[in-house]
Design brief:
elongated
Length: 226
């Protein structure tokens, strides 16, 4: 379907771009906040997530010496940040997309990714919190504040991505409702069949003329035969 102006919560294609109005949109603000949270988690784990003892040069993760905890936090942090940049650019060019099908796929991608990352941030928060609770005080010389910051902003990221999930679902729902309202059921436009010829009752049938048997007039006498 072409020319889907206003579909999926966006303005008509080809309109002028208003930066102030764009930044004030709730999903854009939530995306910026989510990107900042992801950057903080990523930076804290990359900068101070690994440490070593004074007599050894081998680095280990400050979360209970579990390298998987640091790798998990860094992985979802950097992917979340890159995804926010990508979908931010999608939000910029979304009103310029005139094809409704393309809009639908982009909204579905946003919906699916936001739902997945909401779940992954929840897992990450629980994982980091559990590993930090088992960390020995002697294993952390520096980086304790960074570890707590990574846990805190992992928790905040759950809600920011949940907001993105909610906004994406609303946009998808708006697109489905617009399609439903503009869709005309072909079965409702099928013309009625030709009306049959009015029934003629057999009782009203009249015998055609000139088929009635002639009757002799009253009092008529045939002539005598000699």
């Amino acid at each position: 379907m072409e020319g889907g102006g206003g579909a999926y919560g966006a303005a008509k294609a080809g309109g002028a771009f208003d930066l102030v109005r764009f930044v004030q949109q709730p999903q854009v603000l939530a995306r910026i906040v989510s990107a900042v949270f992801a950057l903080i988690v990523f930076a804290c784990l990359v900068g101070d997530g690994y440490t070593n003892q004074s007599e050894k040069s081998d680095l280990y993760c400050i979360f209970n010496r579990n390298a998987d905890a640091c790798r998990y936090g860094i992985g979802i942090g950097i992917l979340a940040f890159l995804a926010c940049i990508f979908f931010f650019m999608v939000d910029v060019y979304f009103p310029q997309i005139s094809n409704t099908t393309d809009r639908k796929y982009l909204v579905l991608a946003d919906l699916g990714f936001s739902g997945l990352w909401t779940f992954l941030w929840f897992i990450g928060f629980c994982f980091l919190t559990n590993q930090w609770s088992w960390t020995q005080p002697g294993d952390v010389y520096i980086g304790a504040d960074s570890a707590r910051a990574a846990i805190t902003f992992s928790f905040f990221s759950i809600f920011s991505w949940c907001l993105l999930l909610t906004f994406a679902y609303k946009r998808y729902k708006m697109g489905v409702e617009d399609f439903t309202q503009s869709y005309a059921d072909p079965s409702a436009e099928v013309p009625t069949p030709y009306s049959s010829y009015p029934n003629i009752s057999h009782e009203s049938y009249q015998q055609p003329p000139f088929t009635h048997t002639a009757e002799a007039p009253e009092g008529y006498q045939p002539p005598p035969v000699y």
